[in-house]
Amino acid sequence: QRQLVESGGGLVQPGGSLRLSCAASEFTADYYAMGWFRQAPGKEREGVSCISSSGDSTDYADSVKGRFTISRDNAKNTVFLQMNRLKPEDTGVYYCAAFRTVVRDMCLMGPYRYNYWGQGTQVTVSS
Known about the structure:
The protein is mainly beta. Helix content is 0%, strand content 48%. The chain contains no helices and 11 strands. The protein has strands spanning 3-7, 10-12, 18-25, 32-39, 46-51, 58-60, 68-73, 78-83, 92-100, 116-117, 121-125. The strands form 2 sheets. Strands 2, 4, 5, 6, 9, 10 and 11 form a 7-stranded mixed β-sheet that branches. Strands 1-3-8-7 form a 4-stranded antiparallel β-sheet, with no helix packed on it.
């Protein structure tokens, strides 16, 4: 059964850092573009960052540019989200997602093409 499992969430003070991981099982991640999404209470799910299957192309929401970095290790079927200089408004449940594509240098910030989703990991930024 194809699965995505996130880890690395937690409670951190403003200005701190966290590194999220997303491990893919039962499918070869290097054929899949991957994305990170988040959802705060009472808000819609929003795209945070995405990375192409080759790893050569990435995209970020304006609110996280310069603070977050997405990367992937296809040999380990894992995608990472390094989050620095965290702010209270970064609080939410973070989800990893994937969709298969033959276009190796493309990823998407909208959720609609993504057909595999993880269960989410909570990130809380608070003093």
